[in-house]
Fold:
Amino acid sequence: MSPLSKFCLAAGVAAGLSMGAASAQETAVNDPHQWLEAVTDDKALDWVRTQNAKAEAELADTAEFRRLEADLLAIYDSDDKIPVAYKQGEWYYNFWRDRNHERGIWRRTTLEEYRKPQPKWETVLDLDALNKAEGENWVWHGASCLRPAYTRCLIALSRGGADADVTREFDLSTKSWVEGGFFRDEAKGGLGWIDENTVYAYTDFGDGSLTSSGYPRIVKQLARGQSMDQATLVYEGQADDMYIAAMRDDTPGFERDFVSRTLAFYNDELYLRGANGELTKVYAPNSANKSVHREWLMLELREAWEVGGRSYPAGALLVTKFDDFMAGKREFEALFEPSETTSLAGATWTKHHLVLNVLEDVKNTLTVLTPGADGWARSALAGVPELGTVAVSAVDSDESDAVWMTVTDYLTPSTLMLAEVGSDKAPDTLKTMPAFFDASTHEVEQHFATSKDGTRVPYFLVRPKDMQLDGSNPTLLYGYGGFEISLTPGYSGGVGKGWLEKGGVYAVANIRGGGEYGPRWHQAALKQNRHKAYEDFAAVAQDMIARKITSPAHLGIRGGSNGGLLTGNMLTQYPELFGAVVIQVPLLDMQRYHQLLAGASWMAEYGNPDKPEEWAFIRTFSPYHLFDPAKDYPPTLILTSTRDDRVHPGHARKMMARMSEAGKDVRYYENIEGGHGGAANNRQQAHMDALYLTFLWQQLAK
Structure:
């Protein structure tokens, strides 16, 4: 993926609009639990600690829980995990956490050393040592180093795992912070290199400089030695935009600067910035994913497009020469067009080739495309396994045709290979993750359920080989169904150790709202059609019950973030289908979601509650409002994080308060750190995972 592709992907996951004062006042009057939205208020935190103590007394105060937690921590801290590396110059870098490095170390090695079973690593930055020295709780958010020397780096650090972070300049040659170097105060946003003495800054510049979701509205050019208020304005967006940013594509021979204006999810404008600062729009559809690599402009369409006398479907991948496009030409080559069962999972450039990763019924196939005088030649990538999820990324798209290739499935530990695109040579196996649980007792199947409107919905089933079809099998069903994110098979030591090894069944539903069948699968469950995602998930549950794989008393569900909204709706709309429900870092109050933290950035997905005609359908999938004190609900566990500055913990807190005051069977745990992922280190992750796995087994294995 080109630097611009990565940039646009990151910039596309942000921001939005605001809620009117009258609506906010009305909600405040009608919601007696709104005080719990005060994230760090002493009264609210006392309430949190009380709930945490109750949950831990019920779930964590046993020898069995402590064994599971220790087993999970051993997996997450294992030195035998694959150290995923990325190339900068001659070095291969990795960020690593284990039992001796709770917050982690940034380290590097050579390719020759990396090939060895136990490579020797050189530590570049030790976050645990930094935290001790500075009295902080930094969590790693990544580093961007300036080529070609790769000695000066912009490092992002988050307090406690929040999305908001700081940026500091680091010198790799001395392994120390640059005194008086580039620095960005804590906010959502970032810095990006232009050259050694200049960066782009998109961040909080003071009052009025953020979108109403708290993301950057302004991008400036900052020179070394300047303060933020001295920086030169590059572009200023509108308050109701999502995210404004800029970046330099520093590909040798193809250096270009771009400004990105993200208006909503899958709705952005891209501008080429000239040497004089003038911006020229890239006139491609706002809904298309736009990326530039060397001489090529690549467009992944999310809506049908008629251009150059041809019509291209949503989900197609088009390519043309960037300079020709900017000069007004509209001649494209369609490198991929979807079918009813296929979608584009990814496209990876190497120096001479483009590797397409296509999902067919949620299974990967890889094709190598090579541009030439007579068009694009197609061939297979040698040595790709027939089964499992396959992910591909370039090692160094400017220098070689080498790619990292990772292969995994639910029962097979991940394998990392190094392949040479365009070669007949089989990939080299570099690393294989050890088995963290006994998978010999299970097998994987794919089934299809029929949703309420007749749609065919795939799901994966990981089941004991000797499973009896008597409806008694403890079963965990997982789902997400949003933002065009695909759920493909992957190895999880935690799920394997804490669920499968005990004899449990694990299922993953590929419901609408996700990306398993491309844009159409996502768009089918937007806004007023959101109910289709929930009908799909219910259909998968009903299919497993009909097959006698399980029964409601033995069927539990789990989902986080948008998946927490999913399981919240399963709880309130389909309580009769489930014996236990886990809701993690969730959206639940859909009347106020766009007022809370980054919530306004998701209105393209869910709708705007301020508009009466949209609130009419949003209310039908707002679990906080669908909850009925008179109804019976299955046992529920709600998990969240105080430091989650993406999905406000108030959603989880208020739902817990509403359910508990009605006397429902519900428990709650909130990690005081953790960010949107729920945990800031492996120990916290092991504790959170042990809580939900213990809860589900207690409820479903009766």
In short: The CA atoms of residues 124 and 175 lie 6 Å apart. The longest helix spans residues 682-700.
